[in-house]
Write a structure and sequence with these properties.
Two copies of one chain form a homodimer. Chain A has 383 residues and is of the alpha+beta class. In chain A, 32% of the residues lie in helices and 23% in strands. Chain A has two domains: 2-256, L-amino peptidase D-ALA esterase/amidase (4-Layer Sandwich), CATH 3.60.70.12; 264-379, ArgJ beta chain, C-terminal domain (Ubiquitin-like (UB roll), Roll), CATH 3.10.20. A six-stranded mixed sheet of chain A has the order 13-12-11-14-10-15. A five-stranded mixed sheet of chain A has the order 3-9-8-7-6, with helices on both faces. Chain A starts with 8 loop residues before the first strand and ends with a helix. Chains A, B: InterPro entries: Arg_biosynth_ArgJ, ArgJ-like_dom_sf, ArgJ_beta_C.
Chain lengths: 383, 383
């Protein structure tokens, strides 16, 4: 049900010819209100695509009437012309639907450094406006795919209200968000500042802890739009949990569809002195190419886990580190533990647990293995 | 000529059976003096192998009589038994040669988390002692190879004195040194503190700027031994330059032989406000898996360079970034520059130049492309 699971929203997805395959590549999501409250979080990359610069500015008002998204081109590193093209795209939406361009967010994904073919995109926007429907959420989710093999949607909610969402992203997945575009909608009646709080809390422990390949994108955007059409104003904690649940569901789907991956790896760090320590250690493990290769080969190579932990500034004693792989404590006290032959790594999901024995904080970061297919897909992407 | 290019040194390399292939795996380097001055630098990893803990302690005296090295096992994450084995190995050298074990450095390389087979290693030490010769440098260089396809030696020097060295390392190559063992020798008459200064200065701009795969080892060791046998005490700057030249030569050989690599990539960062900024940006570029895949595919994907720069805290304006690949300025002012089709990437060496336009500092970091062969080699290493 995607972004149209919530009442008050229409969406669509059409083919504008941005993708050479002829697949759909322009999506539109419109909030018919009565509320137009919205919030957004964006990439922490300092090199930001034109649509990120635009949408960040739009969101300062805490309102969104619509979101237009295109695949087939990131519109990043495209200079003033790129920014004008983003502005022009928002204007086209505003004209087609009688909206204010200053309340239309724009998201783009695809190759960096190419100007968007506006002669195709602008007619595509008109076509998307004509196709808008209250059950167009799936079509929108399909249209934002790039190298994704499947589209990603999720929902969660309470009595009389729901949060729904769609996501794309399969490479350049790393913290400060992944290379991904996410639009969440809700018919709950929640003001913009509460949306912002819930969204930041949710992304901090979900999308920000997806680190497929360590590469941070220029275009990451997560938007949350509330129509208030249900007439229900949920309790703050209940609403925040629904937003978190949808984000967690979508984040897990991103990892499951990461480029070339054959394993989904949960890196669990326990017993850290601080959450920041736990996160630093988890990221270091998640980004260790040698370990990611070992996991690909179903090799419970805990030595590579320890060498990754050793590169951090987290509080720990090297002689008190424990590491489990799929529940087998192959490293105890910084040295050989249980028999590594007991580890079963044949499944797609692998859990690496690193216990620092320095405190009570814990985090989980999700990553993938490193495969020849990842190399192939990303060495041929632009050709 | 390796470590026996300098007068006053003997070396050897023998097969002790640590490697299942039957290749040589124990090397010995002995300083016959008259001076025994020495210095060393070690991995910055906080998880350190037993031989690193041992050799670091030995070096506090500023003297080394011998260095014993083994491939076929890293003796890392091996607990008290591992440390005892390192100590025992030094004692074996001392007994065989009539030396003080407290002046014998030990270096190990291979898999983490396995105890060394002392029943093979100790007889190997005796055999290596028996084989010592003034032209044993090549044999020693061969015996320390792991996944290296070739052994690495280099020399430089002045009138009447020389610096020679050997290195091993082909994976887990990253700063704070690479997974590598390096022994340098000189017959120049240089006191320990001057050796230390020259060695730290040299490694800082050579081995510490080799970042093949972002993975820092538990065992990295670079030792410099001076026999004084030439009777020449070179001028400080001239000696430092010779040490730097040998380190640079060996570092370049490490990159050229990195596991699975098909491209050697010089990441040059110019116009940085500080050297630390330049280094941070260069490392971020060098560690970007997507970019490394693109280079493998001979794709001048400057967008991935910009997205890597954007993840740093270095001083720059995104709209003033310039990027050249093999001399073609494919990105100017943060946007499209010269025609990417002009870039010739068919050679093994690729130069990526990122100009931050924020100051006058520059550094070069060497890395490799990411290939299916790297994945294969490192997913099958321990099996």
């Amino acid at each position: 049900m995607s972004v149209t699971a919530a009442a008050g929203f229409r969406a669509s997805g059409v083919a504008a010819g941005l993708k050479t395959t002829g697949a759909t590549d322009v999506a539109l999501v419109v909030n018919d209100g009565p509320s137009l409250a919205a919030a957004g979080v964006f990439t922490a990359n300092r090199v930001q695509a034109a649509p990120v610069l635009w949408s960040r500015q739009v969101l300062t008002g805490g309102r969104l009437q619509a979101v237009v998204l295109n695949s087939g081109g990131a519109n990043a590193c495209t200079g003033p012309e790129g920014f004008q093209n983003t502005h022009r795209t928002a204007e086209q939406v505003a004209t087609a639907l009688g909206l204010n361009a200053g309340e239309v967010a724009v998201c783009s994904t695809g190759l960096i450094g190419l100007q968007l073919p506006m002669d195709k995109l602008l007619p595509g926007v008109d076509a998307a406006a004509a196709e808008l429907s209250a059950d167009g959420g799936e079509a929108a989710a399909v249209a934002i795919k790039t190298t994704d093999t499947v589209h990603k949607v999720a929902t969660a909610g309470g009595t009389g209200w729901i949060v729904g969402g769609m996501a794309k992203g399969a490479g350049m997945l790393a913290p400060g968000l992944a290379t991904m575009l996410v639009v969440l909608t809700t018919d709950a009646d929640v003001p913009a500042d509460a949306l912002d709080t819930a969204l930041r809390a949710a992304t901090r422990t979900t999308f920000d802890r997806v680190d497929s390949d360590g590469c941070m994108s220029t275009n990451d955007t997560v938007l949350l739009l509330a129509s208030g059409a249900s007439g229900v104003a949920p309790e703050t904690g209940e609403f925040a949990e629904a937003v978190r649940a949808v984000c967690a569901d979508l984040a897990r789907q991103l990892i499951a569809d990461a480029e070339g991956a054959s394993k989904d790896i949960a890196v669990e760090v326990e017993g850290a002195a601080t959450e920041a320590d736990a996160l630093q250690v988890a990221r270091s493990i998640a980004r260790n190419n040698l370990l990611k290769c070992a996991i690909h080969g179903e090799d419970p190579n805990w030595g590579r886990v320890l060498s990754a932990i050793g590169t951090t500034s987290a509080e720990f004693d090297p002689d008190r580190l424990d590491v489990a792989i799929n529940g087998v404590w192959v490293c105890k006290g910084g040295a050989v533990g249980e028999d590594r032959d007991l580890v079963d790594m044949t499944g797609r999901e692998v859990r690496i647990t690193a216990r620092l024995n320095a405190g009570g904080e814990a985090v989980t970061v999700w990553t993938n293995d490193l495969t020849a297919e990842y190399v192939h897909e990303n060495s041929a992407y632009s050709s």
